[in-house]
């Protein structure tokens, strides 16, 4: 149809990205991506569990297809993600007998060696296409504001302390050209305790000389939370604390609620709720634009409501811009025509 392109409508502000997934880059779904987005991130295919499920056995076909698609269609790429505690094969934190590693200098050295090996293999593999990448989520979701030291008790942390963070960034920086900026990426970054931890984490990395270029705000949010004003304050507080740091919205989607009630099927979601979602998208994008370059990329964690991680068997969500038949929703109009 003739409706305006989402990415074109934001060209003066930032690229607008979406996810690639198996089946998401072919046919009408691929056409939707090409028309409306100018940035792409792999939803799952560049995670450790997808690339190196078995030690030393690397599987690149799905990720390569997304990179080839992006290059052929002129979309820029975000890489996601090198070190995370989820979608990790168990072997990384086990000894040769399949027993869980316990903290010791030797197990720390082993896990860091595996991390360096993984990142090196992966970034060398994508090196021929690196000019198409502008960002890489190096480390994902390591903050736990319930801990006094702010650090999530993941196997990474329990076995290496914070060294896995520094090692990931240093290894990535040595292999990627400067135009590929390196991000720490997390969710709920507007939460007051979490934001305080984020400040502490980045300040510590900067003090140690760790090569971090940016912060990714996932923005898996809901109609109830957070307010656009708190997003504005959060981005400004980080920009003030870390002059020149890049900030990107990396995984945005909007649920109807954090805690229910939920809709059992997609058809149950009333037009009034779609309209509310439309106003929400409008208000957030107004905020991103008004931040005047402090947000330099926005990625939406879905192409259309027919494929979203938020919809489960008992819970239907309508968290992105196009409906289950790929038709533009009020969410789309809130971005493209906010007047
Ligand atoms: C999600 C994917 O969308 C799902 O398909 C998968 O089953 C789990 O991961 N934070 C992240 C993303 O950084 O990688 C996650 O993606 C969503 C939360």
Automatic annotation (TrEMBL):
Record domain GH10: where: 1-338
Top-level division of the source organism's lineage: Bacteria
Family, per entry: Belongs to the glycosyl hydrolase 10 (cellulase F) family.
Protein name: Beta-xylanase
Lineage: Bacteria, Pseudomonadati, Pseudomonadota, Betaproteobacteria, Burkholderiales
Shown segment, full-protein numbering: 339 to 677 of 800
């Amino acid at each position: 149809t003739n409706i305006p392109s989402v990415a074109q409508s934001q060209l003066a502000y930032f690229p607008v990205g979406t996810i690639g997934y198996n089946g998401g880059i072919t046919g009408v779904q691929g056409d939707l991506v090409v028309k409306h987005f100018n940035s792409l991130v792999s939803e799952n295919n560049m995670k450790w569990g997808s690339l190196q499920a078995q030690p030393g056995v690397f599987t690149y076909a799905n990720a390569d297809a997304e990179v080839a698609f992006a290059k052929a269609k002129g979309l820029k790429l975000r890489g996601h993600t090198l070190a995370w505690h989820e979608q990790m094969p168990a072997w990384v934190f086990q000894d040769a007998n399949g027993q869980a590693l316990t903290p010791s200098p030797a197990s720390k050295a082993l896990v860091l060696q595996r991390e360096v090996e993984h990142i090196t293999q992966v970034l060398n593999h994508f090196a021929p296409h690196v000019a198409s990448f502008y960002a890489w989520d190096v480390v994902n979701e390591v903050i736990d504001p319930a801990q006094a030291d702010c650090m999530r008790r993941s196997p990474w942390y329990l076995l290496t302390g914070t060294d896995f963070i520094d090692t990931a960034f240093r290894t990535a920086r040595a292999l990627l050209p400067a135009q590929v900026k390196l991000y720490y990426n997390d969710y709920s970054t507007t939460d007051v305790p979490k934001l305080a931890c984020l400040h502490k984490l980045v300040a510590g990395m900067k003090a140690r000389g760790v090569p971090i270029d940016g912060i990714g705000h996932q923005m898996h949010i809901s109609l109830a939370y957070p307010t656009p004003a708190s997003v504005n304050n959060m981005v400004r507080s980080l920009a003030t604390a870390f002059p020149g740091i890049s900030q990107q919205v990396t995984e945005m989607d909007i649920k109807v609620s954090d805690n229910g009630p939920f809709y059992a099927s997609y058809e149950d979601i009333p037009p009034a709720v779609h309209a509310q979602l439309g106003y929400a998208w409008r208000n957030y994008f107004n905020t991103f634009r008004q931040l005047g370059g402090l947000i330099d990329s926005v990625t939406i964690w879905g192409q259309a409501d027919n494929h979203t991680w938020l919809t489960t068997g008992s819970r239907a969500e309508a968290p992105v811009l196009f409906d289950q038949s790929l038709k533009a929703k009020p969410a789309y109009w809130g971005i493209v025509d906010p007047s």
